[in-house]
Amino acid sequence: MRNFGLLGNNIDYSFSRKYFSEKFEKENINARYRNFDIASIEEFPEIIGTNDISGLNVTIPYKEKIMEYLDRLDSHAARIRAVNTIKFEADGSLTGYNTDYWGFKESLKPNLRSHHQKALILGTGGASKAVAYALKLLNIEYDFVSRNADAGFTYDELDKSSIRDHQILINCTPLGTYPNVEKHPSVPVEYLSEKHLIFDLVYNPSETRLMKLAAENGSSVINGLRMLELQAEKAWEIWNSQP
């Protein structure tokens, strides 16, 4: 039996374990998927040393910290500087990949319209790096929004002009995730319109507070479920690819 899993902290909610466990059962794949919930990235060598692992997914807070433990990065992960998939090579080495950018790009593309030219990325964590990389590949300009002024806009600086100038808003923060479903990023939603596309990486609940408020103003809205499904399938493809 092949062993796969998710590396992270406080990951009982994990999408990946449920998704892959159901996939293995449905497709009669002789494998299992476990959560490796560790308090520190320094526990990683022990995890791989005491478990026969064929592949790992990586989630917060280790998508960037994990890189120092890997032997190489694929070209996309090297540019993004964040890893969410690890392939265990036949020679025992570890290669880091990023499939978040792929899942985001492919789930965003069908919803794009000609006027969707600029985006605001809410948050500056690991997921936002993959989102920014995907937007570059799609030739969409973007600005970051964070609580400090080091990168792009602060939330306090968002106004009618900046919202109208950016037709895509992407929430890369955990705000709005169950059980804190009433929370949402502090953006002036009253300036959203039918020209806006809101992509919330949160998938639980399926309609976040941000999505609901945006939809009430006529905006198109997407949650992060399809992105997660696509990135998971891309990870599976990587784990099963030949050198």
TrEMBL record:
Signal sequence annotation: none
Single GO biological process annotation from the record: chorismate biosynthetic process
Gene3D superfamilies noted in UniProt: Leucine Dehydrogenase, chain A, domain 1, NAD(P)-binding Rossmann-like Domain
Residue ranges of every copy of the Shikimate dehydrogenase substrate binding N-terminal domain listed in the record: 6-86
Record's keyword annotation contains Oxidoreductase: yes
InterPro entries the UniProt entry points to: Aminoacid_DH-like_N_sf, NAD(P)-bd_dom_sf, Shikimate_DH-bd_N, Shikimate_DH_fam
Alphabetically ordered keywords of this record: Amino-acid biosynthesis, Aromatic amino acid biosynthesis, Oxidoreductase
Single annotated GO MF: NADP binding
The UniProt record lists the keyword Nucleotide-binding: no
GO cellular component, one term: cytosol
Pathway(s) the chain acts in: Metabolic intermediate biosynthesis; chorismate biosynthesis; chorismate from D-erythrose 4-phosphate and phosphoenolpyruvate: step 4/7
Highest taxon listed in the record's lineage: Bacteria
The name this protein goes by in its record: Shikimate dehydrogenase
Organism: Christiangramia oceanisediminis
